[in-house]
Q: What sequence folds into this?
């Protein structure tokens, strides 16, 4: 159990076996980011929101975790550990994902490269979100997103394999995969705008 899971249990009283799920929801659907730059108060608030979202949308999230376990070859009831360097899935998840479905990574394309500026403790933090596309060996096209902090860092700090919002899966055609990337990118920007507006109102 990592430090984030310990803090989540303290903040939400969730069962220990649910903590990694709450952390995943925090990264993907609450902060859209890593957790290391959140203040303790923000982290607590985000954990409680993520715990609520997980319970309100239990069926959809459990589908997501079943997908993750299937990609890793884990049994259906296996608990996936959550290292701080990944978006709620084991360190090997990116490599496993590249094998199932098998991707032709030398043909990977970056379709959309967003830069988000966040204010934190009087400091501006620059964060990148890149949306990628690669063909699968079976003829389909796989779309996924990665977070880079700072934005120009070549190595991602989080990977979004998000089955709810349309990325992190294979599509029948390249056009469908590209359309999903732009749709998700638009939703990502809209949520960022709403969050900024909300902060300025408070």
A:
């Amino acid at each position: 159990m990592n430090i984030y899971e310990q803090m989540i249990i303290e903040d939400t009283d969730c069962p220990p076996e649910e903590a990694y799920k709450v952390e995943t929801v925090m990264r993907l659907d609450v902060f859209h980011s890593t957790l290391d730059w959140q203040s303790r108060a923000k982290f607590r608030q985000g954990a409680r929101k993520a715990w609520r979202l997980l319970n309100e949308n239990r069926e959809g999230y459990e589908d997501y975790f079943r997908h993750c376990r299937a990609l890793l070859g884990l049994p259906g009831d296996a608990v996936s550990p959550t290292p701080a360097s990944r978006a709620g899935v084991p360190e090997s998840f990116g490599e496993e994902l590249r094998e199932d479905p098998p991707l032709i990574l030398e043909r990977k394309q970056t379709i959309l490269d967003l830069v988000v500026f966040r204010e934190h403790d009087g400091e501006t933090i620059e964060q990148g979100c890149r949306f990628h596309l690669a063909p699968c060996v079976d003829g389909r096209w796989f779309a996924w997103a990665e977070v880079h902090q700072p934005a120009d860092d070549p190595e991602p700090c989080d990977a979004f394999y998000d089955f709810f919002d349309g990325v992190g899966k294979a599509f029948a055609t390249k056009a469908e995969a590209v359309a999903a990337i732009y749709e998700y990118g638009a939703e990502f920007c809209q949520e960022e705008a709403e969050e900024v507006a909300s902060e300025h109102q408070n």
